[in-house]
Structures are given as structure tokens and as C-alpha cells.
Amino acid sequence: MGRYPDIDGPMIVAGGLIGLLLLSIPFLIYASIQEQREWNRFAQAHHCQVIGHMEGSTGIGIGPSTGGNGGVAVVTTSEPGKIGYRCDDGQEYWRNE
Questions:
Q1: Does one domain contain both 58 and 41?
Q2: Does 28 share its domain with 6?
Q3: DSSP of 18-81
Q4: What is the reported pTM?
Q5: Which tens digit of pLDDT belongs to each residue from 46-67?
């Protein structure tokens, strides 16, 4: 018998997954900041100019569930707003706001 007899395998796995998720948050924030810095350097080096803006959208849909139990499914979708850039490399880039 282990030190904590009330904790079983699924609880240990769930705790490990939650811990892994929490440890990954700082990495994801760092990666996002680095990606923005790289874009800023690229945009400056290639003289990128704003050429447009697309509004974001959110949608909600309701329909029958495919689970076979006659249930109802509610689906939401979300698309962030975007800003378009044209750079001196001849390309257009659309980035999330």
C-alpha cells in the first residue's frame, strides 16, 4: 500500500496532465511573444504597409446530435479579426489581430 491509499491511477494521470498543461502555459506565452517579435523585424525589413482590415466574427449553430440519442448540439465558431499587409517582397500577409 502506497503513501496515499485514496489516490488511484486515473487521479494520478489526471494530475499529471493538469500539471503538464500548467507548465506549458509559460512556453506558449513565450512562443507567442517571439513570433510577434519575428514578424515585427520582418515587417520593418520588408517595408510592410497595412492594406486592409477584416472584422472578426462569431457564429452559433443548433442542430441534431450525431450521437444517436436524439439530442441537440450547439456549435459556436469564432474567427479573429485580421490585418492585411503588403511588403516589398511582393507578397500579401494577413495576420490575426
A1: no
A2: yes
A3: HHHHHHHHHHHHHHHHHHHHHHHHHHHHTT-EEEEEE--EEEEEEEE-TTSS--EEEEEEEE--
A4: 0.62
A5: 999 999 999 999 999 888 877 6
